[in-house]
Each structure stands twice: as structure tokens, then as C-alpha cells.
Design a protein that fits this description.
By secondary structure, this protein is mainly β. The protein contains three helices and 19 strands. The longest helix has 25 residues.
Length: about 325
């Protein structure tokens, strides 16, 4: 073998190794990665934090922070963290969560000595890959006296999408035990977010005089007319650090009582609630009760679409049609 030939082969080999290292570097951090920590699961998309699923340390499980397009948070930090410029009301509004204010008479929405707790039991599956990640978990709904009122299994699925949007599918199945389970008639519930303070329809005391957010529903209702109305989807958008961002919740057409009612407030609470007919429509107390027979279950499904721009720029209506068609795009 000639010296030049040997050197050429060595050079080619080195280049090949460098190329493999380069490809590996590109691959690191791409896709969805879910990592288990002591009290939470860290969810990253393309190497950047999207959210943490907190399953310990609070009266119910929740997601915080929730980082939307442009690496900007779309939910409030309080009560997990005190941040200048944020209102510190409703300490039970923990970023992104699912709970309800009347389950066999027990309040799982508030956080008080008289309230119940949603307690993590186990993870059924944790999976992530280049296109999506999934957390399947089981939880116990525990009354103040320690009684397990019901149980649930919930699935959180996040998709790797372009940087100008984020997409979550959330599914919860609630199981009755040996007795019927009544999901009671109250406005306090259920699939909920507490949005960033600058997205609010009504500014807090620190943002008086600054631009405010907008609420719009598939029904055509807007802003203060949206509370307690029925709609297939609801979108809430406003400025975050000078950029217009929005969050839309889609009510799955297979959900009980679709299209749902919306417990959406001018101070940034944003919740789909199919139970609160007494409050929403001034009907007799108990009209909105939903009873799950003993040994049976009920399932609710939602999609959460985080986007740039208003509902037209983000094509919220079109994206809802994609959702109901069953295509995750």
C-alpha cells in the first residue's frame, strides 16, 4: 500500500467518524423527550422545555409551566411561583389541570381543608419518540376523610409540531366504585387553564390601560358573552411579551353533552365544563348532574391548540375540523 493511499483512507475514515458524530449531535434533543424527576415528569420538544407534569406536592396533579409558541409561557405562574405583575387570586388555579367541584358532594376543585385531593397512584405508560410523547397515569380522588370517591385514568399526548404552535390531546376516564358516582351540577370545573396575566380579557391591577385579550367561540359569542355558553370550541388570545398568542380548547364530539358549556372568565380562567347547568342556564339545582352507574365509567376528550395570532390567523375553526376527523395534524 502506498503512503498517499494509506493517508487518503485514514482521512476518509476520520471524515466518516466526524460525519457520524455530526449526525448524532443533530439527533440529540430532537422530537419529544419525557424524563422522570423526583416529583414531576419533564416534557421537552426538540430540546426545549414544554411542560412539567407535577404528580406530587399539591392537592391535585397539574402541568406547569406550559410554554407556547416563541418559547413564551401561556399560563400563569401563581401559586407555584410568585412573579411580579401577576394577580395572586384563586390559589387552586394551577396552570393546566383537570378536576371538578362536586363529586359525590366532595369539592375537588378548590384547595381547602374541606376539599378532596386528586392523588397520583401510578404511571401506566410513559412513551416518547420523534413525533409525539404520551403520559398515561392513574389517580385516586380522595375525600378529606381518606375515602376514595372515584378513580381515573388519564392520557396526556403532546405532538412535535412547528415552532409556531403546540398541540395536546387530553383524555380522562373516571371510574365509579361500588356505588353510583355523581358529577355534580356546579360551574367549578373541569378541563381548565389559568392563562398568562397579559392575555386576560380584563387587565389585572398591574396592567390597567394596556392591551387586553379576546375570547371567541365557535358559536360566534365573543368576550363577556362567552361565559356559560355552549360551543364546540373556545379560543382565548392576547399579548405575551408583545406577541399575540392564543389557546384554544376543542370539545370532542363524542363527549357527553357535546357541545360543552364554557366556564371562561375575563380574569384568565378558561375551562370546559359540561356539568354546571344551574349556574350557566339558571336551571334548578341538580339539573346538570351526571350519574355514572356503579362499576362503570365516563370518558372526556379534549384537544388544546396553542397558536400565534388570532383565531382567524391560526385557523382555529379549520383545526377543529381536523381534530374531529381523527387526524392528529
Amino acid at each position: 500500500m502506498s503512503i498517499p493511499s494509506f493517508r487518503s483512507k485514514v482521512a476518509l475514515s476520520v471524515c466518516f467518524v466526524v460525519y457520524l458524530a455530526f449526525c448524532s449531535t443533530i439527533a440529540i434533543g430532537e422530537g419529544v423527550v419525557i424524563t422522570e424527576e423526583q416529583d414531576h415528569l419533564r416534557v421537552e420538544i426538540d430540546g426545549k422545555l414544554f411542560t412539567n407534569y407535577h404528580f406530587k406536592g399539591a392537592p391535585h396533579v397539574y402541568f406547569y409551566p406550559v410554554v407556547g409558541p416563541g418559547d413564551l409561557a401561556v399560563t400563569r405562574s401563581f401559586p407555584m411561583k410568585a412573579v411580579e405583575g401577576e394577580a395572586q387570586d384563586h390559589k387552586h388555579h394551577r396552570s393546566l389541570w383537570y378536576s371538578h367541584g362536586d363529586v359525590n358532594g366532595v369539592d375537588f376543585w378548590a384547595e381547602s381543608p374541606k376539599s378532596g385531593s386528586i392523588v397520583h397512584d401510578r404511571f401506566i405508560e410513559i412513551r416518547s419518540d420523534a413525533d409525539s410523547g404520551e403520559i398515561r397515569s392513574a389517580n385516586n380522588w380522595v375525600a378529606p376523610d381518606g375515602t376514595i370517591v372515584c378513580t381515573d385514568e388519564r392520557t396526556f399526548r403532546v405532538y412535535r409540531r412547528p415552532s409556531n404552535e403546540r398541540l395536546i390531546d387530553f383524555e380522562v376516564t373516571i371510574f365509579a366504585g361500588d356505588e353510583p358516582l355523581v358529577l355534580g351540577d356546579t360551574k367549578e370545573g373541569s378541563m381548565a387553564l389559568r392563562l398568562s396575566e397579559t392575555m386576560r380579557l380584563k387587565p389585572n391591577e398591574f396592567n390597567v390601560g394596556k392591551p387586553v385579550g379576546t375570547i371567541v367561540q365557535s358559536s360566534g359569542h365573543r368576550n363577556n358573552d362567552t361565559w356559560g355558553k355552549r360551543a364546540a370550541w373556545c379560543d382565548y388570545y392576547g399579548l405575551v411579551e408583545g406577541k399575540t398568542l392564543g389557546v384554544a380548547i376543542f370539545d370532542h364530539p363524542g363527549n357527553p353533552r357535546h357541545p360543552t358549556w364554557w366556564h371562561v372568565r375575563d380574569y384568565g380562567l378558561f375551562a370546559a365544563n359540561p356539568f354546571g347547568l344551574h349556574h350557566f342556564e339558571k336551571k334548578p339545582e341538580g339539573t346538570g348532574n351526571l350519574t355514572v352507574p356503579a362499576g362503570q365509567s365516563v370518558t372526556f376528550r379534549y384537544r388544546i391548540y396553542m397558536h400565534e395570532g388570532d383565531e382567524l390567523q391560526a385557523d382555529v375553526a379549520g383545526r377543529y375540523e381536523v381534530y374531529v376527523s381523527g387526524v392528529a395534524q
